[in-house]
Each structure stands twice: as C-alpha cells, then as structure tokens.
From TrEMBL:
Name of this protein: Sensor histidine kinase
EC nos: 2.7.13.3
Residue span of region Disordered: 342-386
A Pfam short name: HisKA_3
Enzyme class at the top of the EC tree: transferase
Cleavable signal peptide: none
Keywords, in A-Z order: Kinase, Membrane, Transferase, Transmembrane, Transmembrane helix, Two-component regulatory system
GO cellular component: membrane
Superkingdom of the organism of origin: Bacteria
Transmembrane domains' residue ranges: 12-31, 37-57, 69-93, 99-121, 133-150
Domain Histidine kinase/HSP90-like ATPase: 275-362
GO MF annotation list: phosphorelay sensor kinase activity; protein dimerization activity
Amino acid sequence: MKVFRQRLTVWDVFPLLWLMFLGFPVIGFFGEARTPAQAALFWGLLAGFLAVYWRVFMRPHSERWALIGWAYTLLTYLLLFPVIGGTASAFLIYGGSLIGMQGSVALALWLAFLNAQVMVLPLWTGQYGTGDLGWLVPNVVFTLVAAYANHASYRQRITSDRLAQVQAEKEALAADAERERIARDLHDLLGHTLSVIVLKSELASKLAERDPARAAGEIREVERISREALSEVRAAVSGYRGSGLKAELARAKVALDAAGVRLEYGGQPGPLPPEVEHGMSMVLREAVTNVVRHARASECRVSITRAGGYSRLEIVDDGVGGAAPEGTGLTSMRERVRALGGEFTRDGTAGTRLVASFPGAEGSGPRAGSERLSGPLPSSPRRRPQ
C-alpha cells in the first residue's frame, strides 16, 4: 500500500541531533597518528554511515533499509575497532537505533541484543579493563533502549501516516458524494421545469401566426415558470451555502471515526453570518486534523453556543495536551479568528481545549451557561452503490 506522507515536522529531523555522538569515534581517531590507509578506511566508512543513517530516518518506511543500516553499523564497528578501539562502539548504539525502524519489535530487540553482545565481547577477551565498565554498561543499555524507543516511534509514525491517508480518502469520498447530491438536486429541481419551458416555447412559436393571443398567454406562462425556477435555484444555493458548518461536522466525524476517536457534539448553531460560518468551519477542520495527527486522544467534544452577540466554538480532546510552541495550524486558526474580530484561546493543561469566539451572531440561540441541546450530528455522506 502506498503510504501517505505528511509535511515534514521538527520531530522528523530530530534524529539528526543524535549525530553529535559521532564526536566520540572522531576524537578516538584523532587521538594518535594514523596511516593514510587507516584515514581512508575511517572517513570512507563514516561517510557511508551518514548516507545510510539519512536514508533510514528521513525515508523511514523501508524495513529493508533498517536491516541494511544495522548490518552496516556492525561491519563498521568490526573494521574500526582495531583502529580506534572502544570508541567504535558508538556505531553499535547507532545500529540499535536503526534496527528499531521496522515493524517487528522482536527482531529489533534481538539484533540490538546481538550488538550489545558484540560490544562486551572485548571485555571477555581482555581487550577492555574493569575501568571500562563505567562507559560500557551505559552503552549496552543505550543500545537496547534506542532499539525499543525507535521501534515505538516508527510504529506511531506509520499509524499517523496511514490515518492521514484515510482522512484524505474520506474527504475525497465526501466531496464526491456532495457533488453527486448537488447534481441530483439540480436535476430534480430543474429537469422537469426546463422540459415544460421547452414545450411551451415550442407551442408559442407554432401559435404565433394563427393564434397570437394564445401564443402570448403561453409566453407569459413561460415567464412565470422561469421566475419560479429562478427562485427555487436561489433557495437551493442559499441552502448549500448554509450547510457549510454541518458538512464540516460530518467530515470531522468521518475523520475522527477513522482515527478511533469518539466525537460528541452539543449545541444548536442556528443561523450564522456567512463569513462567521466559514471561519468556524475552517477552525473546526484544522482542530480536528490536529486531533487526528498529534493528540493521541480517545474522545473529542465539539460544542457551539451563543453569548453576548458572540458565537463560540469549543473543541476539547483528552489527548496528550501540553504547551508546545504553536505550529502553522494553530497560528492559522488564531489569525483567522482575529481577522473576523474574534478571540482564540488554547489550554493544554488536561488534553487540549480550543475556544474560538466570533462576533456577529444572528438570531436567537442558547445563551452561555444555559443547558445545551444535544444536536444530532449530520449524517456522514456515503457514496451511492454503483
């Protein structure tokens, strides 16, 4: 299956930070004079390691490359240990981290355990002294921990990417279903009316010479039918525009269901100014995207209430929360709300709670503090059977 990739984030490039530990083998290399052959071996193997490391972590959906990376680090250690000694064990720790980037936790831990055994082997052959235990034991632990931690990260990343793919596919299906609904409604609305207009126009044309009075009557009837059709089309278009928030709620339910997150919806939004409804829909869409991709939540609550001339959208999830710096999505939501003269707040104390207040509420609706009505979720659009 082709895996959908999200845009690159800071966590995607975080593994590059761990390359700073290559300083240990580099320091070991420069610790004494080297022959040209040793220098060529060391720098050649180091360059190859960087290429393999980049391939595994920057394009992490190939388990074959994880195995190649692990084998390369083991070979690099065996070739460089006679040259730089124990500092070459850094490559065995990297091997543990690389082998974690594949689907089998058992394989990752067994191969990391093999790396650990290779690391302590010089201790049994007398090449290490007891004074080396101070760094040898932590390195063995780091090798095993790196394998397990990167395996967990790999599984989470794969799951997140597949959920994003499912969400994109669901949105495409919803868009197709919406186009089919509009086409069906327009056909039902205008098909019969236009057929009547054609027939009466043809009749008026035939009667124009022999019965002008009757022909004029038919033309007036065509005018009446056309005006009625125009009114119906305008009403239908207004209905489509007014269903933006409901349609977004339906898409949110589809996306959250696909991610295994239960959606609860409360409130009756009532009539909203078009710009407010559009802004609220976009905030809801971005917030739900964040819940699906990052929150690791099991429940998401959405409510729309009224207070003091403001329409208030609240999205709460029970995910990881936190006070991490705002990314593009949160910044976009904040700017969108401010552009409409509203206010946007975020609270990551227990899960994440987003509140967007928009001015210019129309009509009457539930006041803040009043009992919210549990509004039924709009039905998720489905593709008609072929």
